[in-house]
Here is the input.
Amino acid sequence: MTKQQKKKRLIYIGVVSFWIALFVLIGVISSLISPITAQAIVLSENNFDNTEIEDDLSDLDWSEYPPDNKGTIKIIEFVEYCYADNVFKQSHYGLYLYIYNPMQLSFSPNEGANVINMATSYDDNGKPASYENLSLTYLDKTTGENSNLFYKFKVTNPNTLLENAREYSKNFGERRYDISDVQFRILGNNAVETRDYEIGGTWHYTGYAAGYGSDESTLECTKTDLETVTLDVRSTVYRPGVDASGDYIEQTALNSVYFAVPDRLYNEYGELRRIKAMWDQYETGLVAVFDDKVAYDHWSPFIGRTDAASSTDRSIVGDYATVKTSYTEYDPVNGPHQVWTNVKTAKFAYNPIDFVDYDAIENPYGEWMEYGPVYDLLSATFLCDNAAEEVISGEDLLAKFREYSNELGGYKINDEYSSALFGTTEEDYAEHHVVKEIDSDAEFDLSATVIGDNFWLGWLGLQDSTTVEYKDVKAIVEVTAADLVGTDEEISERLFVNESDVADLKAYYEQNNFGNHIVLFRFAQSDYMSANIWSNVADKNTWTEVGYAAQETVYLSFDIISLTFYRDGLYTVIPVVMSPIDIAGDITPPPSGCGNWGDCAGFPWWIIPVIILAVILFILLLPLLPSLLLVLGKFLLLLLKLLWKIIKAPFVLGKKIAAKVKERKAAKAAKAGKTAKTGKKVKPGKVAKTAKTGKTLKAVKGNKGGGSSRDKP
Here is the structure.
């Protein structure tokens, strides 16, 4: 190698070394100025994800964990895997759970089906400030004779927990993990149930695994108890009632739950200030309640489908009516002239294929229909004897949904309800998943409007609609004994709970009020619609009333995560243990319509006989009508004269009194030689008027005392 080549080689090595040193220096400076947070770490798949559960638990004495049909699910190991302060080694970080499942239940392996309620932030004192339900990922389970006895899960996305662990370690010298409970979705024979199991533990980690903070493992863990509260939660859905009848009703539904909270929490931590909950919120399509079997049989096959238009030329409409209307037509010969026609109207339509009815004899211009929103989804159908009186309970509706879901297949919300029933897909799930913390100062406004075809109001040409409103309904209230006094209707309106749930609420209060506060938590409001429906299933151009249809919002997997108490400036968050519940309000018909005379709710039964009797009397007395009208006219005239005299009497009396007063004044003035009006003396030749007659008197010369008593011409 020549000197020239050696020189070039040294220069090359120097340049490369310079750039390497520069990049290292930049990296160090960047880490000092802007430390990499846990969120920036991409957690890679660990080899630990793939280890078999039997190998992981090889040092466990399995004889201490036998199958037991009455046993309780437990966490036997909570593993913090490969934590490191060095950001370049944090990509292997993970949190793993080993579950002892003595009843050998079958847990759903689907992502998001199973969750763990853990603290996700801490206050300045190191106490949990908030909790969240975090998704668990299924990894493995035991098989054979110990099938399902042990399960292995990991926290799906532990990024937030990694950041918490790093910050908590910096401030308090340990890494802390607070676990309230775990929820598992249990798969049975054509049934799904989600159950919650209390854990109530805090895991304290210090040190590091070998190679992640030191050459040898210094990792240590201790476990302490965590305070939780277990809630038995019941639901109720309230819709404001309207003292009116009609074919169509819109209401604001107030969705609530109630539960018992131990007095000890209030005594120790103060007033209940906030409640954190989560749920999956879906709006149904039309739920149709038929009392016409032909219509029921025709429409039931379309449940969960959106292809009705390609399969049938029939339709369903809500609040159907036919009205006369006119429009101006321009004729080249006769010029513009008014044309009258029939217009069919409806509040909404399902599958509106063709609403034109051409009848050249009755109406050469045909008929058409004006309608509101178009629904493209049927979520459920029911058949009954009399739809106007049929109420479908929320429990029966959910049961019907589960029945359909087994037939429809496809993606199932929470492994239970077909997304086709709500017109959604798996990709839409995030839009329907709600996590909300509601303050005790939050309020709701409620309203309800009934629109009908009332015979009497229509006859008078008035709008047939009635609305009620309730303002400032508190989100969190305590139920007291005084609240439960009165009729079911009074209690329902006082507490804004479903009247049919009042008996259950009273029983719950009696069973749980000792040693507890009974809390009513109003967590959401939604819209409810119900309308009488017509269909042309028998004949395309003939519309027949076939029942009613409704639409509401349901709340699936409702779960309370935590309760927050407040006293003397200090907030205390208590995690909640509860099994999620599904909430659906009852499907109720619109108030009984008054469109056909007296068939509306609360209509006096005696009105129709009275009307009939009045018509008969009118017909019988018709020949005597002229004489009766004459007598009636004279009587009315006499009555008016008498009324006029009564009205006029005070004014006549007042006038007479005033005249008397003036007469007396005039007499006194005459004696004094003064006018009654001015009080001045009358000079000779001047004219004065008497107070009584108003006639002029001419004073006589020489008579200084007054005027003559005779009139002068």
